[in-house]
Design brief:
two-stranded antiparallel sheet; 2 strands; 3 domains; elongated; 8 helices; mainly alpha; 254 residues
Length: 254
């Protein structure tokens, strides 16, 4: 019995031999042992492996899963928060993707921003118009207030008005006396004086008379309007009333 036990243990395949047998069976090669007890032991050891390999070789191979096509959104963009399906290209049905919602949000954002900017510009334009209206009203009030003393100062006879305007230009009494002589000769200080031969008109005898409209609409009858225009003319052409009077004496016109 001890001898048979040692023989049985000596004829059983070692781990390396089992690996060799398994490799040979997997390659379809028949392996034969050297002794009958070894063959019997090898057959007992290899039989389960052989059956497993045979079953594995006969089992049908499952086909590889087909690659699904990439899904691309072709429907209209979906704004953020709106749960509506969009049409997609591919094998899938109607789907709702987060990408579509994000794209919708990006598409809507410029429009909303433009609308807000337009509303802001409209509000600012209204504010500017209101400020401009208030400024114009205040400016008109200041002009009216400053014009009252001037009109009061220009009241009186034409010579009184002329004396005030001559002083406001920085000219002295001598310049007023020259002006007085000049316009005594031209119109005798009559606001409606009309020269029938030359169409000269008014106290300064403007030629033609409608030039004095640059100083006001009442240029035909208002002495102050005519005198303001006449003094500007003298200042621009001769410099002072005395120079204008000297030219008139020498040439009989000024």
């Amino acid at each position: 019995m001890p001898t048979l036990g040692r023989a049985a243990r000596s004829t059983s395949p070692t781990p390396s031999r089992r690996l060799g047998l398994a490799a040979a069976l997997a390659a379809g090669v028949l392996v034969a042992g050297g002794a009958a007890p070894a063959q019997a032991a090898g057959a007992q050891a290899v039989a389960p492996v052989s059956a497993t390999v045979t079953q594995a070789s006969q089992a049908p191979v499952a086909p590889a899963p087909k690659a699904r096509p990439l899904v691309q959104v072709v429907g209209s963009v979906v704004p953020r928060g709106v749960h509506a399906p969009v049409l997609v290209a591919g094998a899938g049905p109607l789907v709702l993707g987060a990408v579509a919602a994000q794209a919708g949000a990006k598409a809507v954002t410029p429009t909303a921003t433009a609308g807000a900017a337009m509303r802001t510009q409209a509000v600012r334009a209204q504010a500017r118009a209101a400020r401009a209206k208030v400024t114009a009203s205040r400016s008109s009030a200041r002009k009216a207030a400053s014009a009252r003393p001037a009109r009061a100062a220009l009241s009186g006879s034409p010579k009184t008005i002329a004396r005030s305007l001559v002083a406001s230009k920085g000219w002295g009494a001598q310049q007023f006396r020259c002006l007085e002589k000049l316009w005594d000769k031209e119109s005798d200080w009559i606001a409606t004086a009309d020269n029938p031969t030359s169409s000269a008109y008014g106290i300064p005898q403007a030629l033609p008379g409608h030039k004095m409209a640059s100083e006001g609409p009442r240029w035909r009858t208002d002495p102050a309007t005519q005198i303001r225009w006449g003094l500007k003319y003298i200042d621009g052409r001769y410099g002072t009333p005395c120079e204008a009077w000297a030219h008139s004496r020498a040439n009989n016109w000024y």
